[in-house]
Amino acid sequence: MLGFQKQSGVGNIKLKNGVLMPELGLGTWKGDEAGLLAQTVKTAIDLGYRHIDCATYYRNQREIGRALKEVAVPRKDLFIVSKIFQNNHRPERVAPALDEILDELQLDYLDLLLMHWPYALSPDMGHMGFSTSDLDPVPIMDTWRAMEILVESGKVRAIGVSNFNKSILQKMLPQCRVVPAVNQVEVHPYNPEHELVAFCEISGIAVTAYCPLGGFRVDVMGDATVQAIAKAHKCTPAQVLLSWLIARGIAAIPKSTSSARLAQNLQMVPLSLDDMQSLGRITTRQRKVDPSRDTPELKWIFHESEAECPLI
Ligand SMILES: NC(=O)c1ccc[n+]([C@@H]2O[C@H](COP(=O)([O-])OP(=O)(O)OC[C@H]3O[C@@H](n4cnc5c(N)ncnc54)[C@H](OP(=O)(O)O)[C@@H]3O)[C@@H](O)[C@H]2O)c1
């Protein structure tokens, strides 16, 4: 039996602890071009978005917080996610990191707090650029146990992880008092994560897809199969990609600064079994995000065969 359930028709995924996560959310990374972010967040909420994906790393939470103060939708109807940056993995830094996030967002609690990456950086690291010498040997479970305590504090309704591969989760789960509610990872047809998604499903971990449209680096919207399905349904490639994720029971957090595209991304299309199978058979493989491009020591995150996770 699944630890989380897809709700029919209500657009939510029920997390293992009963908390409802809207299946379509707004991404906010690099959503601040020309100071547009506050307006984007307000427009998105007006259009019906209730799930906002934030992170300390994005350095724009104050602007998001100001926008959240100005919307008519009550706090209890929003699902606000943020992430602990890698320089805050030492256990004594986890609770203050959450307090800083809440201060920036001007909120009393988060709906979901994620460990952004399964590796730590030295506490004095800034947010941009790091080298091998900045890696900090903090075991993942030390950070996770500090996050588990936060659930009891009432300042977070659920905790989860991001960029965790199957082998890390397999080692981690037997040691958890609180199983991660969510694993946020890159998912689109060029990085479909069939095995990881299946493992999360049987483990009761909901999956959220980041870069669901491939971001700026991966041209999955231009893929011939995606384009052909979009043409047949008279919709856009973005709608095909998002509908494919939602049909797989995966939440998606596309980012857009255009109100027309924000509205479009909320409209799912009913894909047939044939469409789903065609999208599942795409063989091109490409990731937008991979920290091992700059830091080869982090190959173990997305290239499991090359090395084991050094610190659990
Ligand atoms: N956990 C992690 O490590 C991690 C990593 C990366 C991202 N994320 C999260 O995931 C979110 C989404 O990822 P992302 O922003 O990299 O990529 P994305 O959402 O896949 O793609 C965003 C790009 O697609 C365009 N776009 C949006 N809707 C469109 C549509 N209907 N038709 C055509 N183009 C469209 C946007 O341009 P316009 O703005 O001009 O519409 C933007 O250039 C981020 O914002 C962030 O919140 C998390």
UniProtKB/TrEMBL annotation:
The record marks 83 as: Lowers pKa of active site Tyr. CDD domains: AKR_AKR1-5-like. This is NADP-dependent oxidoreductase domain-containing protein. The active site is at residue 58. It comes from Coemansia javaensis. Keywords: Oxidoreductase. Substrate binds at residue 116. Pfam families: Aldo_ket_red. PROSITE patterns: ALDOKETO_REDUCTASE_1, ALDOKETO_REDUCTASE_2, ALDOKETO_REDUCTASE_3. It comes from the Eukaryota. GO terms for molecular function: oxidoreductase activity, acting on the CH-OH group of donors, NAD or NADP as acceptor. The keyword Phosphoprotein does not apply. Residues 24-277 form the NADP-dependent oxidoreductase domain.
